[in-house]
Amino acid sequence: MARCTAPVRGHRTASARANCPACGSRSRGYGSYPSYTPSYSTAYSPSRGGGSGRSSIHSSGKHTRPRWSHSGSSVTYTQAEVRALTPIRETVESRPIQPELRDVFLCHAWDDRKDAAKLLHDQLESASVSVWFSEKDILLGTPLMREIDKGLAKSRIGIVLVTPAFLSRIKGEGIADKELSALLARDQLVPIIHDTTYEALREVSPLLGSRTGLNTSEDSMETIAVKLAELVSI
Questions:
Q1: Are 119 and 23 in a shared domain?
Q2: Which whole number is the average pLDDT over 120-147?
Q3: Which among 5, 7, 26, 137 is placed 20 to 30 Å from 187, CA to CA?
Q4: CB burial readout 16-55, b (16+ within 10 A) else e
């Protein structure tokens, strides 16, 4: 029996196939075969630093666009973010449109009011999001908890800025803890993780830590503000 020469000479051209004692006769009897050209995916190219020789492969499904994000949006979402934000969006859509509603209730630790919380507030307003923010919405001499209750009732969604200072406040069961309890009772809370981790949050508040939100280690404050603007846009 004639032996194929492909392992030695290859069949890169039609003439090479024709000269093969095993394949040449088949080509002549059944018509030409497509020429054989070895191809190597870049996903399997040897790595520069050695190792297994297989480079990382980026899944095309890593990012997606939620149905509430307009086609010209400049931001991308992970599938985990879309899963986490979809129930929040459904809550936004189910509420009657009321002109007096704020878009977002910003829950934060007192220590963050002039730093991270103020930055997030300013980025949200730059994205045309109306924000209930204690620094501007609670006047001196007014009952704190009553104003917080009113703010919660008149906001489409709540966001909680989770920072090291916030985690300390939760441990001490301060005002932030009372706001958080009210928000957790509804499907309208988005955690924003900043300068800490979900693992640290779960140690202090397993219930809040079980909710996925947005993270400044993955997106800038500006990008997070744009995502929240899309989330509450009606």
A1: no
A2: 86
A3: 137
A4: bbeebeebbeeeeeeeeeeeeeeeeeeeeeeeeeeeeeee
Q: Identify whether residues 41 and 68 lie together within a single domain.
A: no
- Cα 57 from Cα 224, distance rounded (Å): 26
Question: Is residue 155 in some structural domain?
Answer: yes
Spatial separation of the C-alpha atoms in residues 161 and 196, rounded to whole Å: 10
Residue 212 belongs to some domain of the structure:
yes
Q: Can you give the pLDDT at residue 206?
A: 86
Could you tell me where the DSSP H helices lie in the chain?
6-9, 14-19, 23-30, 79-94, 116-126, 134-137, 144-153, 164-171, 175-184, 198-204, 206-209, 221-232
Both 137 and 211 in a single domain?
yes
Q: Kindly state whether residues 69 and 7 are assigned to the same domain.
A: no
Tokens of 181: 């309890």
CA distance 26 to 108: 76
Q: How confident is the model at residue 59 (pLDDT cuts 50, 70, 90)?
A: very low
Q: Domain of 4?
A: 1-46
